[in-house]
Design a protein that fits this description.
about 80% helix, 16 helices, single chain, Growth Hormone, Chain: A
């Protein structure tokens, strides 16, 4: 039986997923088809948000640590971020040579409040969900959110199947995303938050002792290595799908739906396997599976084949999404969880900024096929880092048991 906050969190996640899917899924094709964006600018669609997050995460964390109640601040940040969809609606009226850059600037601006809301939500929800409920809840939540995202993406793909080069269609898309964004704010405010008394510890901007924690330190190393290899190919995939495979909005939607359908059915599997083995060990297999995707993608431009590859990707992405967040909470000491989450987000933002840029540089330097092949090899290396983490944490636990 789900608690009140669990139910509200699921409702909030559904409208948030729909809002993000309605807009974010189609940013690259909008930039290429309507705004005439270059490869470098397409790469910036993936790189700019984490750059802003890198700059904003520490100030956002300091602000959140000083608050006794975070819910209202998080809700207001979401509201500001979603209201900026209005600017996206108007970007087509900017002079043609500057449209793509105006679009990128708006995306950057949106991620200033989005960074605050992201960190605030992670901290907020970690305090609302009991440790013993975490695996079941996030597995259920991720599955239901994926269903909501899948349905919304498929509906939009069908409605806009012949509208790939119609600027007005994208404007309506951003407007509907705005409406769902207002729903996010509503459900955020419905959460029942336990107000935490302000303390001197909460007001400190950083606690460097987190880097002395063996499990958290290894989590950072492994997670950042994996995220680097995962995210460096995002821009390349977008360019391959739109420029090389010539996928329309409908096909982009079909790729996404195929990916999400598989995720829906495999979240419970990853939860079960993680409970039987461990989050870390299962991340080894998830990362190895993700290493297949770039290599498989470049074997053909057939859109039906690419749909199948997207479905294969969904199986492993469900594991990555579920296990990474669970592992973050598992390896973050409870008393310093806010600092651990903040630090992870700062470092992740740095990786997420440079990784797509390196991917685009490789694309320009060695071509799309060799770039994808190299990315597959690097993803295999990242899987081995998770295996090393698994071995090291088991060894550390045995040493601690012997000492005690």
């Amino acid at each position: 039986m789900r608690t009140y906050n669990e139910r509200i969190s699921i409702y909030h996640g559904m409208v948030s997923t729909i809002a993000i899917n309605l807009a974010g899924n189609f940013y690259p094709i909008f930039a290429i088809s309507i705004l005439g964006a270059t490869n470098y600018q397409v790469g910036l669609i993936s790189s700019l948000p984490p750059l802003i997050a890198l700059v904003m995460t520490i100030p956002a964390a300091i602000l959140l640590n000083r608050l006794e109640s975070q819910k209202k601040t998080v809700a207001m940040a979401v509201l500001v971020a979603r209201l900026l969809f209005i600017l996206l609606i108007g970007v087509v009226y900017v002079s043609s040579p500057y449209q793509a850059w105006a679009f990128l600037i708006i995306i950057a601006l949106m991620n200033i409040p989005a960074t605050l809301s992201n960190i605030g939500w992670q901290t907020l929800i970690s305090g609302m969900i009991k440790d013993e409920r975490r695996g079941v809840f996030f597995s259920d939540r991720n599955r239901l959110l994926t269903i909501a995202g899948m349905i919304s993406t498929l509906v939009i793909g069908i409605i806009m199947k012949n509208q790939t080069t119609n600027a007005s269609a994208y404007q309506w898309l951003f407007f509907v995303a705005l409406l769902f964004g207002l729903g996010e704010v509503f459900f955020l405010m419905k959460h029942k938050e336990k107000v935490q008394p302000s303390t001197s510890l909460k007001k400190s901007s950083m606690n460097w002792s987190i880097f002395k924690d063996h499990g958290y330190k290894w989590f950072l190393i492994a997670a950042l290595c994996f995220n680097f290899t995962w995210q460096m190919s995002w821009g390349i995939f977008n360019i391959y799908n739109v420029r090389i495979a010539e996928a329309t909005i409908l096909w982009i939607s079909i790729f996404s739906v195929a990916n999400q359908v598989v995720q829906i059915f495999t979240f419970p599997l990853w939860k079960k396997w993680a409970e039987q083995k461990s989050n870390t060990l299962m991340l080894v297999w998830a990362a190895l599976g993700m290493a297949l995707v770039p290599f498989l993608t470049i074997l053909s431009t057939n859109l039906y084949y690419l749909t199948a590859v997207s479905a294969i990707s969904g199986f492993f992405i469900s594991g990555v999404v579920l296990l990474l967040f669970n592992l973050l909470l598992e390896q973050s000491p409870v008393e310093n969880r806010t600092y651990c989450i903040t630090t992870y987000n700062v470092l992740l933002s740095f990786v997420a900024f440079i990784a797509p840029q390196i991917g685009i540089l490789l694309l320009e330097g060695i071509g799309i096929q060799k770039s994808m092949e190299l990315n597959s090899m690097l993803r295999i290396v990242s899987a081995l880092v998770f295996l090393l983490m698994y071995a090291q944490t088991r060894k550390f636990k045995k040493v601690v048991l012997v000492k005690n």
